[in-house]
Amino acid sequence: MSGQEIDWSSLTFSVAGQWIFPQKGFGTYWNNGPGLSLYADVPVNHPLSLFASAVVSPHSVAETPKKQQIPPLVLVQLGGGFLVGTNHRALFRVGVGIQLVNNTFIFSGPAARPGFENAVESEFGIAFTGIITWKPDVLPPLQAILSYQPILVGLEPVAVFSVGLGVRLE
Amino acid sequence: MNSRKLVIILIMMSWSLKAQQNDQSLEQRISDQLARSSLAQLLSATRYVPVLSLRGLGNWSAPANIVELKGMPFETFLLNLVSPDYVPFDLIQADAIQMDPRPSLAEAGSYPSGRIVLQSRSFPDSLEVRGRAYGGSETGDVILDEYTKDNLPFFNRNKIGFSGSGMVEGRAGDYGYRLMVAGFNYFSVGYEDRDRIILSYIDASTFSRPNRNYVGAAELEWKGKNGKSISVYAGVNAFTAWEQIPFTSTFGFFSGSIGTIRLSAPNLLPFLTLGIRRDEGIVSMRNQKGTAGGEYDESVSGIHLLPHFDLGRSFRISLPLEYVVREITIPAGNTQFFTQNDLRKAWAVGIRGEAGFSDGQLLVAVRAERGGNGQGWFSATLGAQVRTSDHSQVEVTVSSLARPPSALEQHGIFSVTRVRQPLGEIDTFTVKGNPGLLASRTTGGDATFRISGAVRTTFSVFAYTIENEIRRRPTMSIRSAYPGDLVFSGKYENHDRAWYGGFEARLGADIGERMGAEIGYAWTQNHAQLPRHQLRLRGTWKLTAGTTGSVSFQGMTRTHWPELAVSSANDEFAGAGSDGMLPEYWSLDCSVIQDLGAVWFLGQLQARLELQNLLNRELRMFPIGVTRDFAVIGYLTMKL
Fold first, then answer.
1. Selecting from 1.10.10.10, 3.40.50.300, 2.40.170.20, 1.10.260.40, what CATH number does the domain B3-639 have?
2. In terms of C-beta density within 10 A (0-12 exposed, 13-18 middle, 19 or more buried), how is residue B206 classed?
3. CATH architecture label of A10-169
4. Is the Cα torsion angle B489, B492, B494, B495 positive or negative in sign?
5. pLDDT band at A47, cuts 50/70/90?
6. Looking at beta carbons, which residues of chain B come within 8 Å of A1?
């Protein structure tokens, strides 16, 4: 198999805390929630990098007339895609990424319907992510992360919006 | 003519379609590959096991045999669900899947509806391990809606579960070996307030059961001197599935398995090739409310002898000889599918002559077949290929092929009992086979003009009649309050005379070193007097050394399925009836393939990631309902 070489020694991870805002129908019936995320990227050919992410966030049920029949859920977002960024040696680096994300909805509690083999189900979405990295002299690189992900199914698609702060482990 | 030249001719006589051209495109299943790379039509409601119509016949009539596995026909398609995805064979085993949409006689077997050729790739000299994994999502509403929305609309809810395949292959001395396993998980529809077509027949304990296919195959080849070789192929496909019963437009939950054994000994003697096949399938359907379940076991055993003689450097004559036993067995008291055992023995003999000239080749083949009841059939194919210049050639084939009725078509039965919701009345619908069926005969021709060069061009015209076409004729049908839920009583009959014909054009070109483009168009007209237009466009762009992107579009205009027409009096759902029209269909596929190169933590592992169907948007309306697909599928392939 031919192809360009990827320097895997340049693989870098980031850890971030986020706040996840479900949108549209998702946001109507479930509340915002905190999220913990892990990002990884490896340069392919400047300014292009491969980009992967994992985000876990719990979401309680919102106050609606249907609250009793709706279970709380944990959303797991696993994504992979590309990131285009400015020079990573600069004091500030700006990156814009696009990812294919698999969203797994894990329901729990008495309202969750048991007995279905696919009660835990996943849907795909496309995430658009912006990352600003600041490299101070005395601290490890810090990151501000902004992401919007439409989930690509159904006639009334839902979406996830998130903001966060993280540390880049270089 | 030596055997190498002969192989080249046979390949040129078929429409070679690359399944995985340099591994640039990875498909999940054989039917996916054929649908994306050709103008074959998928006939399926569930997308689980699409039945293929290679050219022209867009209706529910049970297709004739279309799959050739390891050089011999594969016939054990349970319930006549003639789909290459039921064959114990996976795309990972092949470098290419060839498809010939023309009726033709092969060295072993007759293919009146065209031929899909499943042949393994050659064994590598050293150990190779290959794997692919894919997961995806398609169709329907997000699961969140399950808890938040009332009166959800009717949508098919197929899901692509995690699936994958793996293969180990290599060569040790004179022996080549290969082991393959594959698993496919398709979550079908299945919530009570969602999908009436399923839930009208099933009980709660079986909701949301995924469709599954588990395929395994093993191959061993011995290569001796003087071109001698012996190869053995064994495979099994175990499945559980919601599938549309071919008798009616309704579903059943099936489980079963299909096994195959192939033994091939080319040039066993200098003038003799031997082939042995044994295929067996078992299917059962559970009881569903008022509908009784049933099961049966189908087997096909055959021996093929091919004496062949080279007469000079460019002329070869062969005498194919077949003896085949087809058997249906049922348990005592079985009332569904079959009510009696069935045993058929058939002989076939033929003469095949192939000649190569400086500017072309000629093929003449005739075949006489005799069934156990004394009936006989005669088939013939004439093919010629003439080189008209250094870059162009003309191919012409003329065929007249017989197809005897199958046991299912003659003695099958399916009966379903249901309650008419508005009235509370109980109806029983029954589809029966017809012992008096005659063999059908496909007669016609195909002319193809090919130009190679900067722009690869192919033009074809074709026209065939089908005398005594075997099809189901509804005697009473009903479309009930559940959208798309169509059931009918009916009977297999010989249709007086059906015909189809049309025109097909394909162009392809490389644009610079980084881009390629293809365009295909087919116009088909059949006895339903409704022309069908199909268009396929594909563009590929190598973005960087390791990144390739492609976009393809497919569209098809309306087709006519007369078997599914419903009179307005029998339409309890809308009261308007249905003329059996299948509306237009289109899809847009995008894929991005990223070569990951050598992955550092696994030594020599090479990996490649493909994201497919990023923009896929299909809108199909089958007679049983509406399907909307919005799919994203990720693939990972590895080669050690």
1. 2.40.170.20
2. middle
3. Beta Barrel (2.40)
4. positive
5. confident
6. 23, 595, 597, 606, 608, 639
**Quick check: helix, strand or coil at residue B147?**
helix
**Distance of alpha carbon B13 from the chain centroid:** 20
b (16+ CB within 10 A) / e for A133-146: bebeeeeebbbebe
In a mutational test of the A interface, the residue from B134, B141, B142 whose CB has the highest number of chain A CBs within 10 Å is: B142
What 8-state DSSP symbol labels residue B569?
G
DSSP state of B204: G
Cα gap B5→B7, rounded to integer Å:
5
B634 contacts in chain A (CB < 8 Å) = 80, 100, 102
Find, among B471, B519, B522, B474, the residue nearest to B497 by Cα: B471
CA atoms within a 13 Å half-sphere pointing along the CA-CB vector of B313 = 2
Q: How far apart are CA B422 and CA B598, in angstroms?
A: 64
CA distance A138 to chain B (A): 32
Chains A, B: CB contacts within 8 A come to 118
In sequence order, which ranges of chain A are alpha helices (DSSP H)? 24-29
Among B139, B159, B545, the residue with its CB nearest the CB of A3 is: B545
Nearest in space to B478 (alpha carbons), one of B409, B574, B620: B574
The 10s digit of each residue's pLDDT in B252-266 is 778 899 999 999 999
Cα-Cα-Cα-Cα dihedral sign, residues B91, B94, B98, B103? negative
* H-state helical runs in B342-497: 407-411
Distance separating alpha carbons of residues B510 and B537, to the nearest angstrom: 14
- Its ipTM equals 0.71
Strands (DSSP E) along B390-513, which ranges? 392-403, 413-420, 425-432, 440-451, 455-479, 486-511
Task: Please give the full DSSP string across B5-38, using - where no structure is assigned.
Answer: HHHHHHHHHSB--BSSGGG----SSHHHHHHHHS
Cα B14 from Cα B100, distance rounded (Å) = 5
- What percent of chain A has a predicted confidence (pLDDT) above 70? 88
End-to-end CA gap in chain B: 39
Domain boundaries, chain B: 3-639
Residues of A within 8 A of B639 (CB-CB) are 1
